[in-house]
């Protein structure tokens, strides 16, 4: 499909970030896509795993731990995973509380107090 990705204005980006706090200003580097010689200003969204609060704390702790301790495996299949970090994971929650199991893991590794 022939398409073109358009840049957003600074004011549009500011509005989207203010209105929807899970967005952040993001630049798609030149040549990320075919026929895209220039940088594109847009918004990004953090990758999120949503888990119901009824899921056992230990289960969520182990899931969170497995994800971060095996990130290199994910990066082999998904290049975007090279941009993932525990620090950005807790920064991109838009004030939605962490599950207690995930919170325990992030405290354990020193990402949150």
UniProtKB/TrEMBL annotation:
<dbReference type="Pfam" id="PF16868">
    <property type="entry name" value="NMT1_3"/>
</dbReference>
<protein>
    <submittedName>
        <fullName>TRAP-type uncharacterized transport system, periplasmic component</fullName>
    </submittedName>
</protein>
<dbReference type="InterPro" id="IPR011852">
    <property type="entry name" value="TRAP_TAXI"/>
</dbReference>
